[in-house]
Amino acid sequence: MGDTLAMDGPVPDGRCYVLRPDVVATVLDHGALLLDLESKYFFQLNSTGWAVTQLFESGTSADTAVARSRAWGAPSEDEAAVRQLVGALIDFGLVEEVEADAAPTGEVPAGWQTPTIERQPQPLQRVIMSAFDPSIPLAE
Q: Does residue 134 form part of some domain?
């Protein structure tokens, strides 16, 4: 699909993040699709990546995401993948820093798989923000 982000270092421990309000999600059978309305990029997450990302809807830290993933049955070798996913959310600018960790419990994914996030190669040229936008031509 596009870019898969690999972190060069660990996610800063103790910092808490929340999904930005202009990042919208569409839930799919196999995960979710995020659209960043600011950058116009789509991001595809597998089901486990979506479950971890949902923790950031109310605000959490990488450490809490790792702990929650373990509670969901993640093997210890996937801790790095969870931290990479959080790092990708930060590096792609999909989350912003907040003061406190809401310590969400989240929904248990159907079956654990290594979480992934991929960014589409090109941003959308234009996103229609309103069906009543006068600059959009009407269908004849």
A: no
Q: How far, in Å, CA of 69 to CA of 108, rounded?
A: 9
Decide: helix, strand or coil at residue 26: strand
The CATH number of the domain holding residue 45 is 3.90.930
Count Cα atoms within 13 angstroms, Cβ side, for 99.
0
Predicted confidence (pLDDT) per residue in 37-72, tens digit? 999 999 999 999 999 999 999 999 999 999 999 999
pLDDT exceeds 60 at position 85:
yes
Query: What is the predicted pLDDT for the residue at 8?
Result: 45
Kindly state the tokens that stand for 105.
């419990």
| Domain enclosing residue 92, as ranges | 3-119
Does residue 131 form part of some domain? Answer: no
